[in-house]
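help with this.
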Amino acid sequence: MSTPETGMAERYQRARGLFDHGEFQAAAHELSALVDASALEPPLHGTTELRLLLARSYYHSAQLSRAERVTRAILVDDPDEAYANLLLGRTLQRQGRAAEARPHLAMAELLGGYGDEGRLPEPELDPDGRDAS
């Protein structure tokens, strides 16, 4: 017999498998339903991991506005979540919003040691020393 927790766990494993096989849109669809279900029937632990995987699925399937929305919501609940800061920074970069990305990438580096993979190149400065980007 399947309990609600078992059903959610099985659905999560299926979504994780889709993600691991590069089927990011299908994973996002499944994970979005799981996030919605967890709001109605909260799991025994937090949903940060679930929501991070959803945001990653959106990011990898180029659904950048959705990835941004989910990562911002995670950071409202847990502003010290290093990977969410990294993912938000990378999402903003892909949208051409480098200036908005910088503080999130810096926070990811500070909190989680995401060093070079999270670091933006130094901004180009105009002749007056201001950020030209």
The first helix runs from residue 4 to 20. Residues 122 and 128 are 16 Å apart (CA to CA).
